[in-house]
Amino acid sequence: MAIPFAYPTLRNAAMVLACAALSACSYVLLPPNVQHVAPPSTSLAEADRKLAEARERRAAIEAEFASSEQACYKKFFVNSCLEKAREKRREGLAVVRAVEVEAELFQRREKANARDRALAEAQKEFEAEAAQRAANPRPERVEEPAPPPKPIAAQVNREAANAAKLKRIAEKEAAEAGKRAENAARFEKKRQESVRRQAERAKRQAEREAEKD
């Protein structure tokens, strides 16, 4: 749909804002001095649909330009015809690009939010486990009084059994300590990864903004 440039810029801006409120109004041809506005996406499914439509629209614009270009070579005013065809193509692609930028930005923001929510949930679970361990500490082992002397063979067997029991207890405690350290390391790795990705997203966004300027 093309908005005729026959009224002041204020009226054009009002029509842009009205169009932005309608999800069906994804492609609007505006005068060169009015910035293209893409309706905001409200879900990942909608953003995916917009990108698919943008690809189709881009292909249609290129096909139309190729056809117009061939037709221009058959006319008397070839250069004027080609210039109009190029301007129409440029304007159409600018509108498509505005839709693509908005949809891609929404996708990146939603995916980043999902990762942040997953990381926050992992941190919440880790802190809950730590609080539970702190509230229910392992009871200290109470030494039993030494039994009365027994025959040598029985005493040897008992000492071996006690040694094996102590070894099992020590191994279990070491395994649990290693698991706690592993959980803490995994959480710290996730946190650092989230910080790194956020920095990369900010850097890429700044580079895109710089390229637009």
Automatic annotation (TrEMBL):
<keyword id="KW-0732">Signal</keyword>
<protein>
    <submittedName>
        <fullName>Uncharacterized protein</fullName>
    </submittedName>
</protein>
<keyword id="KW-0175">Coiled coil</keyword>
<feature type="region of interest" description="Disordered">
    <location>
        <begin position="173"/>
        <end position="213"/>
    </location>
</feature>
<feature type="signal peptide">
    <location>
        <begin position="1"/>
        <end position="20"/>
    </location>
</feature>
<feature type="region of interest" description="Disordered">
    <location>
        <begin position="117"/>
        <end position="159"/>
    </location>
</feature>
<feature type="coiled-coil region">
    <location>
        <begin position="44"/>
        <end position="71"/>
    </location>
</feature>
<feature type="compositionally biased region" description="Basic and acidic residues">
    <location>
        <begin position="117"/>
        <end position="127"/>
    </location>
</feature>
